Amino acid sequence: MSTPILLEAIGIEKYYGKFAALGGVDLKVRANTVHSVIGPNGAGKTTLFHMLTGTKSVSGGRIVFDGHDVTQEPDHRRVQRGIARSFQVTSLFLSLSVRENLRLAAQGTAPTKAMNCWHEPEGPRACADTVASVLAKLGLESFASTPAGNLSHGQQRRLEVGMALAARPKAIFLDEPTSGMGIDDLEDMKCFIKSLRDEHTVVLIEHNMNIVMDISDTVTVMQQGRVLAEGLPHDIRSDDRVRAAYLGNMITGGKA
Questions:
Q1: pLDDT in tens, 15-41
Q2: How far is residue 49's CA from residue 52's CA, in Å, rounded to a whole number?
Q3: Are 31 and 5 within 8 A, CB to CB?
Q4: Domains of the chain, each with CATH number or no CATH
Q5: H or E segment at 210?
Q6: Whole-angstrom Cα distance, residue 60 to residue 2?
Q7: How far is CA 125 from the centre of its chain?
Q8: Is pTM beyond 0.85 here?
Q9: Model confidence pLDDT, tens digit, residues 43-92
Q10: What angle, 0 to 180 degrees and rounded to 10, lies between the N-to-C axes of helices 98-107 and 128-138?
């Protein structure tokens, strides 16, 4: 890859008492790529996401994003720098419309404006251009006025990614965005995630190996809080260590 490094983690550690959830993880994510992090349950993938996005603090190591040391910065500050994420469990305002969900997400980059409940969301506060752009990317224009709770599960997962996009991020972290999706929705979501790298950098946790192998530029495999292997999808597919530790016969199948 010739694109510059946007995010670098150096020796990231996370301890809970004496238990090392992360035992010194190094990671380099290049701009405008899809970088997938895979591994068995308990490997430390989501913990790593928490460290990189600032949801939780590191026990040791250093994180550099877009040339800035963000190791000690809280999550809202990292959002302002251009980091956004979705979560494994869908987190939407179910009674609000699709448009309102996206507006609140767009306003969230400036908390003082987002929490201003005394004025109607008009003019710049409506974030109309951002909302319209994200709606178009999601293909949800016809559902703009629909309460999020009335969407299908696949549409809700897509909307949650859209809420991360509404923050206008440089890097978007997606934690199992296809979780619970039916077959009909998987192909659309796969193509959608792949398209994001045109304007964003994507860091992805995903258990569906067909998706990982089809859309990733780089795959990092974790095991017991450490990096086991990293490389191009075809290299990971043929790595005996990865097969033994995680993928096994599922390397050519669906979920692992």
A1: 999 999 999 999 999 999 999 999 988
A2: 5
A3: yes
A4: 1-82+169-256 (3.40.50.300), 90-168 (no CATH)
A5: helix 209-215
A6: 29
A7: 26
A8: yes
A9: 999 999 999 999 999 999 999 999 999 999 999 899 999 999 987 666 78
A10: 120
